[in-house]
Design brief:
Number of domains: 1
Shape: globular
Strand order of the largest sheet: 2-1-3-4-5
Helix content: 25-40%
Distance between the termini: 20 Å
Structural class: alpha/beta
Largest sheet: 5 strands, parallel
Low-confidence stretches: 1-5
Number of helices: 9
CATH topology: Rossmann fold
Radius of gyration: 19 Å
Number of strands: 5
Mean pLDDT: 91
Length: 260
């Protein structure tokens, strides 16, 4: 065994639970080598990326995905955990409400509503003796506008008997500009950061690391996701690359002080 390796039992483990955008935290095939770790990983990340999981699903009623119960069952097995929710709400849930349900709600009001739900759920969660970190959402990959309309409309109207053109007519008028969408994401992150700190938890996001610009620094204007993080597929997740996986893995190490 290398001098840098540790027995499996001694390797710290972190649980990550989130929506499908959190899948990049989880190990993939040949993970250690592809991440550039020649010996054993300094810590392991386990958990689950739950497709379609939303903050709105934390409300005190039965969720079809039962995400609340998944979290409650997982936490007792770990000392450290990351919760990464909200992207589904901002990029899909918001449009379902304003386009399909015809609710009169603006983005800022929506982020306040989501943050209050998140806070109530955390208040009711048994985290005694746990180190919890909340991850903020990513900048949106929903661009250009034609792609955003087509992608969002397909998802939020999937239970309606509408043609593609009819779906576009329903969603198109309410689609935010990319800057407006990202402003909503940043507003949500600010509220989640405040929520985390008020409850004694950690907070992090990957906005600065993925923002457009040579050094990834945020400008005075609303940032946008850099092109290199866009996938060529009909998808709104970050591109699945080694740098993206490493970014997620190392962000967990930094927030919990696990990286040398």
């Amino acid at each position: 065994m290398s001098e840098h390796e540790r027995p499996e039992a001694a390797v710290p483990k972190v649980c990550t639970l989130g929506d499908s955008h959190s899948r990049f935290f989880l190990e993939s095939k040949f993970f250690a080598g592809r991440m550039g770790y020649r010996d054993a990983l300094p810590y392991r990340i386990e958990g689950e990326a739950i497709a379609a999981a939303s903050v709105a699903g934390f409300r005190p009623r039965v969720s079809t995905l039962d995400v609340k119960e998944t979290i409650r069952k997982a936490l007792p097995r770990y000392e450290m955990a990351v919760l990464a929710f909200g992207q589904v709400d901002l990029e899909l849930g918001f449009y379902y409400r304003v386009a399909v349900k015809k609710e009169d709600i603006d983005p800022e009001e929506y982020t306040r509503w989501l943050a209050a739900i998140y806070g109530d759920f955390l208040d009711d969660l048994d985290v005694a003796g746990k180190r919890i970190a909340l991850k903020g959402v990513n900048l949106t990959a929903l661009r250009p506008r034609a792609f955003a309309v087509r992608y969002v409309s397909r998802i939020v109207t999937q239970k309606a008997s509408l043609t593609p053109r009819e779906r576009d007519r329903v969603v198109g008028p309410v689609i935010l500009t990319e800057a407006q969408q990202n402003r909503m994401h940043l507003s949500f992150n600010a509220k989640v950061r405040e929520l985390a700190h008020s409850q004694g938890h950690q907070y992090f996001d990957l906005v600065a690391e993925t923002a457009d610009g040579a050094d990834g620094a945020l400008s005075a204007t609303i940032p946008r996701l850099a092109d290199r993080f866009l996938t060529a597929a009909f998808d709104h997740h970050l591109a699945d690359t080694v740098p993206v996986r490493r970014m997620h893995f190392e962000s967990v190490g930094r927030v919990f002080g696990l990286l040398a």
